Amino acid sequence: MTDTDATLTTTITGYDVKRVESMLVAHLAQRFEKETLDAIQKEARGRAQARVKEITAETIDVEVRKVLTEGWEEVSTWGERTGKRFTLRSHIVEYLKSEQRENNHHGEPRYTPIQRAMKEAVAAVFSKEFEAEIDAARKTLRAQIDAAVAAKFIETIKSALGLR
Q1: Are residues 125 and 159 in the same domain?
Q2: Residue 102 — φ and ψ, nearest 5°?
Q3: Domain finish residue from 15, 43, 67
Q4: pTM
């Protein structure tokens, strides 16, 4: 038996059976209509959102490609068009070649972003390569200082106690 083949048999005393039946049918019809509309709205909303995303992606793709290939017009500090066009590539190259002042303002040399990246990469390689040698030198220095301090301490104690 399917949902559409359901049959309801009941005995109602004191009520107008036709009225109860019509109220029940109206309620079920209203519920069916609401559930159907909700399902349709959900499906329509999903399709509309997918289409909006598709159109947006296409539009953005076209505009991004246009900017990458044609560039854009430069503007002054006040937002006025200068008539000069530049591309993203030229802008990136200009930035990478520009000198950037460090934030510490201690007169340290200016580095371009490329120079700074190279300096950091070389420092990372050197610190990793020489880590074992630096640790060995640190241990040797520590042992030498400990020995010198201990000898000086013993000498000072002997001298203070007159034990020479």
Answers
A1: no
A2: -65, 155
A3: 67
A4: 0.33
